[in-house]
TrEMBL record:
Pfam families: AMP-binding, AMP-binding_C_2
Single GO MF annotation: ligase activity
Domain AMP-dependent synthetase/ligase: 84-289
Keywords assigned by UniProt, alphabetized: Ligase
Name the UniProt record assigns to this protein: Putative phenylacetate-CoA ligase
Signal peptide segment: none
């Protein structure tokens, strides 16, 4: 088993025509399943005047989009899982809850078959990033309501890796165990890894690079795909950093880098259809290298809470559509950011991940931690935009640093910022999985 190159060669190297046929067959099954069991979709399709049983892969684009707000609303109308839930609660083996940006979490249910599907996709991801039987894996994500922790644990058991269920608490104990038992691989988020770096160096006097990690896979936010942030983590921990991405509504991971690291491969073949649309017009677009597109997902083998043409809100750049040097055929992307996080300054679109990249290029004059202050949503953003930047271990002349940062933002990102420097530690990660880099003023 350990010698095979892919977890699932047939699916991960499938050719486009064969994948299309498989997607067509499973989409038809899924739409019939939904038609028979989901009050939410029966009503939605009826209102759109569409017979879902007439739809196949070629005509998928005719179905209306589903958005997160509809999921939230239907969960209130049909508690607890919503009107898109297609099975009775006693067939649900696990319920997860998303953190939710508005405070009220949305719930995600899995049947036994859905849980097996997640195991399969996650095993493809873990295998592609180097996990094998016996690999010592530091599972450094929240274990609990969050979809990732338990799901990774199940998939790691399936591969027969050696799991360290560290979670995100008790960092001191974790470092103690990891140093005694040795470690090969870590799963976490960029923000949490930065937190661990600070704990190791400043509280425990440990060099993270001395632990012997060979690789880490980071998701939950775009950081691992941002060149400066990836480089910083790789240098600090002296290991390879893989970028991966998923979503609570479909699977904890649907995209992962392989050893070639030429973008994240789609690895949900047979379970999810990934479509690309123009974020402004909503029109489907044919994936081509270099294009910027918004992701849309459709479940095609989900029993519990299938979603059709779900606008997940991730903007991506298409990195490659052909076969990769690793042999996988899954289309390759990089995440640019959340549509919701993008802000516009006098007609220029700005993503926090791009600001992060520019600021991190100033290390060690800065730590790389920063915050952007914006007016309430809906109000125009007038330059200069306040950007708060944390001083690093070797800041040098502060007036010059401020001027250099403002100049780099203006020339590379084409907007005017006013930089405010704050002491080291003021913006440090506090042990959460994600960081909040945009602060919006209250109305
Ligand atoms: Zn590849």
């Amino acid at each position: 088993m350990a010698n095979r190159r892919y977890w699932n060669e047939a699916m991960e190297t499938i050719d486009a025509a064969e994948l299309w046929r498989l997607e067509d067959e499973r989409l038809r099954w899924q739409l019939r399943w939904i038609w028979e069991h989901s009050p939410f979709y029966r009503q939605k399709f009826a209102e759109a005047g569409i017979d879902p049983l007439s739809i196949g892969r070629d005509s998928l684009y005719r179905l209306p989009f589903t958005v997160k707000e509809e999921v939230r609303r239907t969960q209130e109308e049909y508690p607890p899982l919503g009107g898109h839930a297609c099975v009775p609660l006693e067939e649900v083996v696990r319920i997860h809850a998303s953190s939710g940006t508005t405070g009220k979490p949305t719930l995600v249910g899995l049947t036994e078959a859905d849980a097996r599907m997640w195991n399969e996709i996650l095993a493809r991801f873990l295998w592609a990033t180097g996990v094998r039987p016996g690999t010592r894996v530091w599972l450094s994500v929240t274990l609990g309501w969050y979809i990732a922790g338990l799901s990774f644990y199940e998939a790691l058991r399936q591969i027969r890796a050696t799991v360290y269920p560290a979670g995100t608490m008790e960092a001191t104990r974790t470092f103690n165990v990891v140093r005694r038992a040795g470690v090969d691989y870590m799963i976490s988020s960029p923000t949490f890894v930065n937190y661990l770096t600070n704990v190791a160096r400043e509280r425990l006097g440990i060099d993270p690079g001395s632990l012997g990690l060979k690789a880490m896979a980071l998701g939950g936010e775009p950081g691992a795909g941002v060149p400066q942030i990836r480089q910083q983590i790789e240098e600090t921990w002296r290991c390879k950093v893989y970028d991966a991405m998923g979503t609570a509504d479909f699977a904890p991971i649907l995209w992962t880098e392989c050893e070639a690291q030429a973008g994240m491969h789609f690895i949900g073949q047979g379970f999810v259809i990934a479509e690309f649309i123009d974020p402004e017009t909503g029109q489907s677009i044919e994936p081509k290298e270099g294009l910027l597109a918004e992701l849309v997902y459709t479940a095609i083998q989900r029993e519990c809470v299938p979603l059709i043409r779900f606008r997940i809100g991730d903007l991506v750049r298409i990195e490659g559509t052909g076969k990769c040097e690793c042999g996988r055929t899954g289309i390759r992307i990089r995440c640019v950011g959340r549509v919701d996080d993008m802000f516009i300054v006098r007609g220029v679109n700005v993503f926090p991940s791009a600001v992060a990249d520019v600021i991190a290029s100033f290390r060690p004059r800065v730590t790389g931690e920063f915050q952007i202050r914006l007016p309430p949503r809906g109000l125009p953003i007038e330059p200069p935009v306040p950007v708060i930047v944390e001083l690093g271990p070797e800041p040098g002349d502060l007036h010059r640093l401020k001027r250099d940062l403002e100049e780099a933002i203006r020339s590379q990102l084409i907007f005017r910022a006013v930089v405010q420097l704050v002491p080291k530690g003021e913006l440090s990660p506090t042990g959460t999985m994600k960081r909040q880099v945009i602060l919006r003023e209250e109305r």
